[in-house]
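Sample entry (198 residues):
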Amino acid sequence: MVTFDELFDGQRFMAILRGMAPAEAVALATRAWDLGIDLVEVPIQTPDAVASLEAVVAAGRERGKRVGSGTVVTVEQVEASASAGAAFTVAPGTDGSVLDASHRREMPHLPGVATATEVQRAQALGVDWVKAFPAATLGTSWFRTMRGPFPGIRFVATGGMDAHNAEEFLAAGVSVVAVGSALSDPRQIDLLARYASA
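Predicted structure, serialized as tokens:
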């Protein structure tokens, strides 16, 4: 099973392609890959979103890019993600059964956290990468504070992130910034790519 250390190596940004039709998701994923943003997640919070995940996975396979499945909150969604060819799964919260199911299918799982208790629980489950959500609401001081008691945890900041606030979160100790709804503005990919290559 690939690890998040390997997946996120050298990457500071991840594109979240939520609520997009397959062709639109593939086009934006391709744009991200062309600009050096290798990490792409396609949320499957609704059954019809699986088609977009499958399309992006197929496009990524042609380019040697791994694609993740997001908003995975049930074991059934883990199975759908595996069937679609996802390389990893992401959730807004922490659920041991989802984590275990993902690992059984050889996909690392990125659980969501928003409190010290949740970070500690994720760590107890053997996780060292977590999704901090909603990051913009938590604020940069939350990440600086969490680094004290949890020096071994790596944070992916998600929720309210864009090219304009990414740098301050990275400076606060975030390992990766995940940008989702902001990508409705196509200029965001280009702005993030400039940061990525800086």
